[in-house]
Specification:
Rossmann fold, 8 strands, globular, 8-stranded mixed beta sheet
Length: about 290
Amino acid sequence: MDGYQRGELRFDVTDLGPREPEAPVALCLHGFPQDRSAYDGVAERLAGSGVRVLAPDQRGYSPGARPRGRRAYALTELVADAVALLDAAGVRTVHLVGHDWGGVVAWALAAWHPERVVSLTALSQAHPAAMGAAVLRSSQGLRSWYVGAFQVPALPERVLARGGALARGGALARTLVRSELPDHLARRYADRALADGAARLSAGIGWYRALPLGGRPVGPVAVPTTYLHGWRDPFYSRASVMGTARHATGPFERRTLDTGHWVPELEPGAVVAAVLEHVEADRMAA
């Protein structure tokens, strides 16, 4: 499949690997301001290992799934989009992978729909409750300053769009490079975000703007979970990272990588290894 429909919204999807009903399936969810190509290295290796991979351009990132208004980007909608993809693909359960905002969706999906999730591999993103608890007692509040800045209408888009998408000239690309994303990847993401008058960028920021609306809390996660994070990641405090284990009630392992924030792009081998370990454990338990 190259896409699926949820209501009036049309989502673009990468679908690689075997289609046999017994084949394990990995659902890979990207963050901001990435797209499904963040998982290209992961998807090719997993597919070569006999795992079917589904990687969507999520709400706001797919041109056909860009609704107006911040309420449309609430976490409950983002999770429902992922469930709709599984239903459209005829997949009952998945090995779930999520990075950055895709990690928030993954933690919520695993907490709210554990019957659809065999395992979780969380990349960079601490459990949302751990981050919330760390905001007032660690550097997490300072590290998340941009969340407040993104609440201002229109201004963040204008600032990040300055200079276009050139890797060393555009504000968005420069910001990504400073967080250790390689130039060519920063340019690709900035290019896509700004290609349509920044509508895609604005939709991605809409995920942040929906945060003050509240909603259903993300509770404990009971499925087997591996948490991969880079020790140079500037976006998560030690309190958030270490506090994540308290919100995993099932088998849990934290692995620290010699990298920054962009784990799926820069450490695809570590991601693949974690997912395949969960696949093998599930086979042994069957």
